[in-house]
Amino acid sequence: MKLIKNLLLFSIIICITLTIITVSFFFTNSYTNAFEISNIEFIGEATLSKRLSFQNTEIGGLSGITYDEKNDIYYAISDDRGQKSPDRFYTLKIDLSKGLLQNGDVVPVGVTTLLNQDNQPFAPGETDTEGITITNRDTVFISSEGDVKQLINPFIKEFALSSGRIRTTLPIPNKFLPDKNGKQGIQNNLAFESLSITPDNQHLFTATENALIQDGPAAKPNLGTSCRILQYNLLTNLPEKEFLYQTEPVAEMLNITGRFASGLPDLLALDNQGHFLSIERSFTGVGFAVSLFQVSLAGADEIQNIDSLLEFDSQKINPVKKKLLLDLRSLDVLLDNVEGLTLGPWLPDGQRSLIMVSDNNFNSLQRNQILAFKIKIESPIFRLFRRLIRNLQR
Fold first, then answer.
1. Given this model, what pLDDT does residue 298 score?
2. Model pTM score
3. What is the rounded CA–CA span in Å between residue 149 and residue 226?
4. What single DSSP character describes residue 351?
5. pLDDT in tens, 4-49
6. φ/ψ (deg, to 5) at 363
7. What is the rounded radius of gyration, in angstroms, for the C-alpha atoms of the chain?
8. Tally of CB atoms within 10 A around 39
9. Per DSSP, which regions of 182-317 are E strands?
10. Are residues 204 and 141 in contact, defined by beta-carbon separation less than 8 angstroms?
11. Is residue 82 within 8 Å of residue 123, measured between CB atoms?
């Protein structure tokens, strides 16, 4: 009887497997490329030496990071604003071959100066480069927050990896651009920190770190803010969609310094179907609070035709869905100003790595901190398969 039951179970499993393969074949883009994180584990940190110099530049201000899987290297953008050296990104080697990260495992191996439309370094203060993401054509897109006080517009430009020359400039919708009356556009130093490209290289995403002026206030103690996610079509290089992202309220706690800052510093596209990881980072007066969320565009309303959320009943807008994956304050680590994240290589145990990097603001009291995690990524169809098998075995 037990043999018959096992044979029956085996037959059912074969049938389910064949069904899944068939469904996967016809719905590849809808299912097998839609990923979620089912588990995350911290596997170590590394910090770069203070005032570390490389090729006559001081390494610091690491605000964004992206992984070049083909060459097993990383590119990290500095938000120096050209004050210490011309605008630049660094090439890093991060050794995760042992399945963990320790001091000494992060090594700078290159630095690339960004060039303007005249093929000259940008003038100091002309940019505030914050986000970086790699393409499949030996280039990176880089975002700049601009400078509202000087009416310098934000930008998203594509640069050649080898030369740092501009290849493409993406148009920025007018609602994001600051005006001299201070009535619309990005808030100062709270613009395009995030940047990510989908695995199929067809869409690029960025987001405002805080609300646009016409969308609401910046984050305050115990009050979140209304960010906009902006989606570009890289086949046309045009913006095509926008979505509402609401950050979490952050408790002020003990605030000796009187300072407070909070927002959305990075997004990471997991698939081609609108699933992301996001970081929300706050300075609360006694240190940094950093949270990692899973994000989905499913069911979110498109808001590109709404110029001002303050003039619209925002309660009627469905924002993107969020699920807390990890509060980094639960780690046994002194957190710094974490602003960037990227997927890394597959680890020896077959799971994927995730890397986060901090911006030390060129402050002697802060650190260039790199955090590493091991994540388990599953597609919905395989989660369904696993649940069916588990139910059948009961």
1. 96
2. 0.89
3. 21
4. P
5. 544 555 555 555 554 544 444 443 344 345 678 999 999 999 999 9
6. -105, 130
7. 22
8. 11
9. 196-197, 203-207, 226-233, 238-246, 261-269, 275-283, 288-296
10. yes
11. yes
SS3 sequence of 268-305: EECCCCCEEEEEEEEECCCCEEEEEEEEECCCCCECCC
What's the CA gap between 203 and 200, in Å, rounded? 8
Report whether 302 contacts 242 (CB < 8 A). Answer: yes
The residues, ordered by sequence, that sit 6+ positions from 269 with a Cβ below 8 Å of its Cβ are 196, 197, 198, 199, 203, 205, 275, 276
CA-to-CA distance for 147 and 125, rounded, in angstroms? 8
Q: In the structure encoding, which two tokens stand for residue 302, read together?
A: 């498109």
Show the tokens assigned to 167: 């290849």
Give the residue among 144, 68, 134, 78 at the shortest CA–CA distance from 111: 78
Task: Tell me how far CA of residue 133 lies from CA of 41, 80, 130, 221, 339, in angstroms.
Answer: 24, 18, 11, 31, 14
For residues 126 and 189, the answer to whether their CB atoms sit within 8 Å is no
CA atoms within 13 A on the CB side of 339: 30
The residue to which tokens 């979620």 are assigned: 36
HSE (side-chain half, CA atoms, 13 Å) at 106:
27
Nearest to 94 by CA among 375, 361, 347: 347
Distance CA 354, CA 373 (A): 5
The whole-angstrom separation of Cα 290 and Cα 380 is 27
The answer to whether 208 and 226 are in contact (CB under 8 A) is no
More confident residue, 2 or 231: 231
pLDDT tens-digit series, residues 275-296: 999 999 998 777 899 999 999 9
